[in-house]
Each structure stands twice: as C-alpha cells, then as structure tokens.
Amino acid sequence: MIMNTKINSTIGISVFLILCCFSISNQPLSAQNADNLLLKNYRPVSIYKIPETHVDKAAYPVIDMHSHPLARTDAEVAKWVKIMDACGIEKTIVLTMATGSEFDSIARMYNKYSNRFILWCGFDYTGYDKPGFGPSAVKELERCYSLGARGVGELGDKGLGLYYSEPVKAYGMHFDDPRMKPLFEKCAELHIPINIHVADPIWMYEKIDSTNDGLMNAETWKIDMTQPGIIGFDALILSLEKAVKENPKTTFIACHFANLNHDIDKLGSLLDKYPNLYADISARYAESATIPRYMKAFYEKYQDRLLYGTDMGYDTSMYRITFRVLETNDEHFYETGQFGYHWALNGFGLSKEVLKKLYRENAIKILK
Ligand SMILES: [Zn+2]
Predict the structure, then answer these.
(1) Residue 190: per-residue pLDDT
(2) What secondary structure does DSSP assign to 191-253, as a single string?
(3) Among 4, 61, 196, 262, which residue's beta carbon has the most beta carbons within 10 A?
(4) Pairing state between β 117-120 and 170-171
C-alpha cells in the first residue's frame, strides 16, 4: 500500500524551479486573425511534408542528471517511476537544494526508491555573512551525506549571489568567494560533484525590443541589471571559472550549458582547460536545437563531458521531446508548449556512441 506523505516547504522551491526552466509559459491558443495579432500569441504550425520521428523510449538507458523533488507524495513518486520506465530513464538525480529537516523529509520519501532516485543536498549558508562561517556548513554537508546525499545542487547565482538555497540565501556571495572553499574541499574529499546554475540565457540580458531574438522568453525572464550589487553575465561566468580552477579536485557540473548556448565555443574552451568541469544539457533544448549542425559537432567534440538532464518536470511528452531533439534528424518542428521561444527546432541525429555517453556513461563516471 502506498502511504501519502507530504514534503514541506521544498515544494515552493520545486515550483520556483519548474518556472525557472521557462517551460510552461506558452499555453495553446486557438488560431487568431492576423490583423491585430499580438506577437506573443503567434503559434506557427509546420506544414512541411518531411519525416516526423517520435521517440517513445530513449535508444539507451538514461540517467537524468538534472531534476528536482517535483513529486510531493508517495503516489506521485510511484507515478514518476512508471513514467521513467516508459521512457527508458534508469535513474534520476534529484537536486533538492535542501539541508536540515527539509532534506530529511525528502530523503524519507525518495529513499524508498533509492535504486531509481539519487538525492543531492544543498549548502547551509547560515552565518555566511558573519566571521567563522564554514565548519557548521561542512558539518551539515557531512550529515546530509550520511543520509544518502551523493552530490550538491543546484547551486544558483544570477548575479545577486548564491540564492538557490534554503534556509539562508547568500546574497552577495558568489561561487569564487573564499568562504566557499571548505565546502568545495569537503565535496572533493567525499567524491561528490556539485551542480551549478550560473547566470541565465543571454537574451534575458539583452535589450527587450524587436531586435531580441529570444524575445518571447526574454520579456518574461529579463534580468534587471539596475538592482544594487548585481554582477553581470561575464562576471558570473568568470566566477564559475575561478571556482573550478581553484578547486581542481572538486567535480563541477555547469547546468544548462552554463547558459552559454549563444557562445557555445566559450563553454568548449572552459571544458578544454578544466578536466574537473562537466556540463548538463537540461532545459536548453530550444536554445540549442536552432543551430543543429553546430551543436552536433559540439556534442561530438565534447562527448565525454556532456550529461543528459531535463529540469522540465516529469511528463512523458517532455522526455520524448528531448529524445526527438537528440536522436532524430527531424527538421523545423515547434514545441512552443514546452519551450516559450518561437524558434523552430531541429534534431541533432547524434551517433550511437555519443548518445551512450551522454545518456549514461559520463554520469556513471561522475557518480562512481
Ligand atoms: Zn534546475
């Protein structure tokens, strides 16, 4: 019998995170007369008579390196496992971002399926702005590790500091801050990786006007650079690079291609320089499926460093859209319901070898 147990305030985080993935902004709309059509209501439908390939189950077993505690009851977790079975998802990394009693309540629920879900905890930044910060945060990390945490994440900074965390948001403290070092060193000692969200897609930093190529999402998620103390896109990428460089024994995963989809070679140069850096591809399928040939070459070149991830809920249709983008050579298809952008998407047609590494082998290497 499945008992219903509730998860407490981490729910807020999960909902916030689903929203963060820009994935549910465009609801289906009935066809509208073009005379006074608002751009945001433009819903093009492809009519090309070209192959459409729907992939129900991934070609090879998958470890999803980027999800969150979205299932809030035993019944929802059981339902998620069924969906994972149907789509070929062997395991899911649940980035709880939680510590203390929050982490404990998530652990109580998901550890019942410890062969399908692996929990990652957060950092407790309590007292980060006072002298002597460090030892108690490290102690809490060790406590979460003893309860099954096998990684840390998602840490997040969009310019105001490390605020993807509970119970304390570390405003003003960035990844390369010396106060983070004892935590990074403890992760190296425990052989657990860290998932990091740095900045946001570049269109959110660009002018919100008719020249903005990613306007549909950028308008909704624009970053207000007038906020006091905020640091910009380049400074954030630099803070990530410094943290990775100064902690060579710690494994870092920059999620969402480090939000460098517009300048993917910049990510390539970071991967070239730092063997302890990986990237997950989660929630940036639209941002990459607009440049399929360039991205296919990137996947092939960095096939040992990229990790499959979703970060877009756990609907069957969501998983299948990701498989279509990664595995097929389909062209010019729209998924505005999943992704806010109005770009047509294209498949990468990745090779068997690249898919096996992306879906599972690289994850196994990191999760050893
Ligand atoms: Zn996330």
Answers:
(1) 98
(2) T--EEEEES--GGGTS--STT-TTHHHHHHH---TTSTT---HHHHHHHHHHHHHH-TTS-EE
(3) 196
(4) unpaired
- Alpha carbon of 311 to ligand 1 centroid (Å): 5
Q: What is the block-wise mean pLDDT of the chain (368 residues), using blocks of 10 residues? A: 41 48 56 82 92 97 98 97 98 97 96 96 97 97 98 97 89 97 98 98 95 92 95 98 98 98 98 98 97 98 98 98 98 91 94 98 95
Compute, in angstroms, the gap from residue 64 CA to the centroid of ligand 1. 12
Asked if omega into 154 is within 30° of 0 (cis), the reply is yes
Asked if residue 97 lies in contact with residue 26, where contact means CB atoms within 8 angstroms, the answer is no
Give the distance (Å) from ligand 1 centre to CA of residue 46.
30
* 21 CA distance to ligand 1 middle (Å): 7
Q: How far is the CA of 197 from the centre of ligand 1 (A)?
A: 7
The DSSP result for 297-328, as a single string, is HHHHHTTTTEE----S---HHHHHHHHHHHH-
Distance 215 CA to ligand 1 centre (A): 22
Q: How far is the centre of ligand 1, averaged over its atoms, from the C-alpha of 313 (Å)?
A: 10
Residue 42 pLDDT: 87
Instruction: Tell me if 53 sits within 8 A of 347, measured CB to CB.
Output: yes
Tell me, in angstroms, the distance from the centre of ligand 1 to residue 156's CA: 9
User: Which of these CATH numbers, 3.40.50.12100, 3.40.50.720, 1.10.1200.120, 3.20.20.140, describes 53-367?
Assistant: 3.20.20.140
> How far is Cα 361 from Cα 157, in angstroms, rounded to an integer?
28
Measured in Å, residue 49 CA sits from the centre of ligand 1 at: 36
Q: How far is the CA of 232 from the centre of ligand 1 (A)?
A: 20
